[in-house]
Amino acid sequence: MIDAYTGAGVRAAEQPLLDAGHGDILMRRAALGLSRVCETHLRRANRKGLLSGTTTVILVGSGNNGGDGLWAGSFLRRAGVMVTAILTGSTAHPQGLKALRALGGSVVRLEGQGSATDPNTAPDASIAGFHALDRGQALSTMTSAHLVLDAMLGTGAWGGLRGEAAALVEDFNAIRRESATGPRIVACDVVSGVNADSGEAPEPVLKAHATVTFGAAKVAHVVAPGEQLTGHLTVIPIGIEDRLEHPSVYRLEAQDILAAWPRPTATDTKYTRGVLGVVAGTPSYPGAAIMSTNAAVQTGAGMIRFLGDASTRGMVLAQSPEVVCSDDQPWDVHVQAWLAGPGVADDESQAARVQAVVEAQEPAVLDAGALTAAAQSVADGRLGAHKILTPHAGELEQVYEWLKGFGVTDDAPDRTRIEAAPVHWAREAARLTGATVLLKGATTIIASPGSEEQDQVCLSIGQASPWLATAGSGDTLAGILGAVVAHVAEHPEALRRLGEWARGDGRWAAAAALGAGVHALASRVDGEGPVPPTVLAANVRRVLRTKGQ
Ligand SMILES: NC(=O)C1=CN([C@@H]2O[C@H](COP(=O)(O)OP(=O)(O)OC[C@H]3O[C@@H](n4cnc5c(N)ncnc54)[C@H](OP(=O)(O)O)[C@@H]3O)[C@@H](O)[C@H]2O)[C@@H](O)CC1
Ligand SMILES: Nc1ncnc2c1ncn2[C@@H]1O[C@H](COP(=O)(O)OP(=O)(O)O)[C@@H](O)[C@H]1O
């Protein structure tokens, strides 16, 4: 599990050490770790695996992030690397600058670059004497290097890159799009311009092959869009780790997912495993019912009760004879949890069943066609953490429109804004609806609503293949989620090994995260390639059969 923190969370842990005058030591530890990672990349760039003869360009901002870059440059110089620092701010970290120059690193500044607050600010006296490169010269220095270290902006930055530094990155990216070769890019702490706390990434950004961060991962490393720009993440311990308190986001990795996945014991029966009721599909859209029930079967649900019309029931049974089908109403059947909504559109009887599920006491996964009913019900009160909404960004936009319509919020983001800051909007939606929200995307975000008893829990799941972007993989996810939620409904303590946060209301977020995690793992069972939903569902069995505990 990766515990990811906000910049403020890390600063709070650092503060006592900074107060005690250990700031320089922290920076040098950070920079040493950073230089080691750069060395690994540089050795790969040299046919003989040597460092001498390799070149590094460091883009150096005005703050401590730039200081880390300059110190790392001094360590690389010691190892025989040719280092050029291009200063992109109106000033530069004095000790770092001195250290790099003492070891023969060259330092130049980017012409026309001022401070963030005032782009017209002239370079201050301490750097004014350095030779100035215009953008074209800086660009060719960058493109001819083996490695570019991005140390312009870290956790102290606000907004994206600006001015000449932004134009330089834009020009560099244009060249990069045209050419398969070019320098390795390593980011110091976070990719410059990416908001460390939210993962927002205003253009332009220098997409990294690797990022080296200090003390702990930051939120931007585990949520989109920051995660997709981070590359391989290395966390360098700098001596603050024991002082870190509350992570902002938990990232569950494969081993966490498999170890925590609830498995039946000898005393279980099909009922204690959890019976899942499914309201999905209509005569016009039967596929969603087939795929979601099949996925729940492959996930090992104790029992599945499907409610729907005769023709859809026939198709569900043809695919999965294990499913018990009827045209009952939700209040007629006894289940531990519900899954409602996949493929439910323009059908009065299924819409009525969905409404009954939204109003039912039992936990429920509310997907696709159930999201509107769920959002509308917020007008009558909060849904409860045991109701799990599973929108993609477009569906979350619609949920927000309903919430705005009911006066629950003034700010209804559109899809673009949601995709720019998914962790923020998933958290906000959970808080406003009182439900657990699972926001789908390249990174899946899960947020609990939070309560007086328990802080909001936020999780992220990566590892999913982009081949999942195909119609029906969401229906498969819904079936997997239904199965695990039904189990957790019967075994409230089943997920406690994940942490204290996975108890109480947090258990629904934990269950949803495990479901999304298994779905992601199933997408890569046979490596990278197409995973049609039927294959994806079958892969779930293979994922769960691997040794995980
Ligand atoms: N704390 C510690 O002990 C440790 C911290 N560590 C390191 O410190 C980093 C945080 O350092 P930080 O706080 O100095 O912030 P940082 O990100 O370098 O930027 C600040 C300056 O940049 C500027 N600026 C801002 N926005 C801008 C923009 N959009 N576009 C252009 N410029 C912009 C603005 O200055 P201005 O140009 O306005 O004068 C501002 O003052 C952290 O990420 C980690 O690498 C490690 O050494 C481990 C120990
Ligand atoms: N680029 C991507 N990378 C990884 N996973 C993705 C990507 N795009 C979509 N997914 C995943 O695929 C699934 C698609 O769900 P959804 O859009 O509801 O599909 P449908 O309703 O057609 O079944 C979600 O689990 C989502 O997280």
From TrEMBL:
<keyword id="KW-0511">Multifunctional enzyme</keyword>
<dbReference type="InterPro" id="IPR017953">
    <property type="entry name" value="Carbohydrate_kinase_pred_CS"/>
</dbReference>
<keyword id="KW-0547">Nucleotide-binding</keyword>
<protein>
    <recommendedName>
        <fullName>ADP-dependent (S)-NAD(P)H-hydrate dehydratase</fullName>
        <ecNumber>4.2.1.136</ecNumber>
    </recommendedName>
</protein>
<comment type="function">
    <text>Bifunctional enzyme that catalyzes the epimerization of the S- and R-forms of NAD(P)HX and the dehydration of the S-form of NAD(P)HX at the expense of ADP, which is converted to AMP. This allows the repair of both epimers of NAD(P)HX, a damaged form of NAD(P)H that is a result of enzymatic or heat-dependent hydration.</text>
</comment>
<keyword id="KW-0479">Metal-binding</keyword>
<dbReference type="InterPro" id="IPR029056">
    <property type="entry name" value="Ribokinase-like"/>
</dbReference>
<feature type="binding site">
    <location>
        <position position="288"/>
    </location>
    <ligand>
        <name>(6S)-NADPHX</name>
    </ligand>
</feature>
<keyword id="KW-0630">Potassium</keyword>
<comment type="function">
    <text>Catalyzes the dehydration of the S-form of NAD(P)HX at the expense of ADP, which is converted to AMP. Together with NAD(P)HX epimerase, which catalyzes the epimerization of the S- and R-forms, the enzyme allows the repair of both epimers of NAD(P)HX, a damaged form of NAD(P)H that is a result of enzymatic or heat-dependent hydration.</text>
</comment>
<feature type="domain" description="YjeF C-terminal">
    <location>
        <begin position="253"/>
        <end position="547"/>
    </location>
</feature>
<feature type="binding site">
    <location>
        <begin position="440"/>
        <end position="444"/>
    </location>
    <ligand>
        <name>AMP</name>
    </ligand>
</feature>
<comment type="subunit">
    <text>Homotetramer.</text>
</comment>
<dbReference type="InterPro" id="IPR030677">
    <property type="entry name" value="Nnr"/>
</dbReference>
<feature type="binding site">
    <location>
        <position position="474"/>
    </location>
    <ligand>
        <name>AMP</name>
    </ligand>
</feature>
<feature type="domain" description="YjeF N-terminal">
    <location>
        <begin position="10"/>
        <end position="246"/>
    </location>
</feature>
<keyword id="KW-0520">NAD</keyword>
<keyword id="KW-0456">Lyase</keyword>
<keyword id="KW-0521">NADP</keyword>
<feature type="binding site">
    <location>
        <position position="343"/>
    </location>
    <ligand>
        <name>(6S)-NADPHX</name>
    </ligand>
</feature>
<feature type="binding site">
    <location>
        <position position="392"/>
    </location>
    <ligand>
        <name>(6S)-NADPHX</name>
    </ligand>
</feature>
<dbReference type="InterPro" id="IPR004443">
    <property type="entry name" value="YjeF_N_dom"/>
</dbReference>
<comment type="similarity">
    <text>In the N-terminal section; belongs to the NnrE/AIBP family.</text>
</comment>
<feature type="binding site">
    <location>
        <position position="475"/>
    </location>
    <ligand>
        <name>(6S)-NADPHX</name>
    </ligand>
</feature>
<comment type="similarity">
    <text>In the C-terminal section; belongs to the NnrD/CARKD family.</text>
</comment>
<dbReference type="InterPro" id="IPR000631">
    <property type="entry name" value="CARKD"/>
</dbReference>
<keyword id="KW-0067">ATP-binding</keyword>
<dbReference type="Pfam" id="PF01256">
    <property type="entry name" value="Carb_kinase"/>
</dbReference>
<keyword id="KW-0413">Isomerase</keyword>
<dbReference type="Pfam" id="PF03853">
    <property type="entry name" value="YjeF_N"/>
</dbReference>
<dbReference type="InterPro" id="IPR036652">
    <property type="entry name" value="YjeF_N_dom_sf"/>
</dbReference>
